[in-house]
Task: structure prediction
Amino acid sequence: MIKVAKEVNGNVMTLRLSGSIEESVALDEMVGPTPPEVRVDCKEITRINSVGVKGWIKYFSGLQAKNTKLTFFQCSTAIVEQVNLISNFVCGGTVESIYVPFACTNCKAELIALFKTADLNPDAIQLPELKCTKCSGKAVFDDIEEEYFSFLSR
Ligand SMILES: [Zn+2]
Result:
C-alpha cells in the first residue's frame, strides 16, 4: 500500500510517496488539486509492479497534460529501474537525484548513496568509493553501469 504526504508552498507541491505501488492507486483522489509545479520525493518507494506503473503513468501524464512542471528527486533504486525500463515513466518531468547501490567489498553490506543527476556524466560515469558504514571497508558500485545510468543518455 502506498502512502502520500503532501506539502504546498506557494506554487509548488511536494509529494512524498512511500511504500509499494502494486495495485491501482487513486493518486488523483489522494493528492487532489495540484499547483503548476509538483516535486515528487521517491525515496521511500520500495517497489512498483506493472499495475502500479500503469496507474503511475496515468496520473503523471495527466499532470503533464496540464503543463505541470514535474521533478522527481531522491529516486529509490526501484524507481530508477523503471525510469530505465520505461521511456515515459517520468512523463516529461526531470529526474533530479537518484540513489545508487553500493556493496562493501569486505563484509558485503549493501549501501545506497544519493547523487544529483546533473553531477553524473552519462559518457563517463565516475563514482567515488564509499566507506562501508559497518566495517569501514571499501564499498563499490553494485549494479550494471550501462543499465543503471542508461536513462541519463536519453
Ligand atoms: Zn563492510
Q: What stands out?
A: The mean pLDDT is 95. Residues 2-153 form a domain with the Transcription Regulator spoIIAA fold (CATH 3.30.750.24).
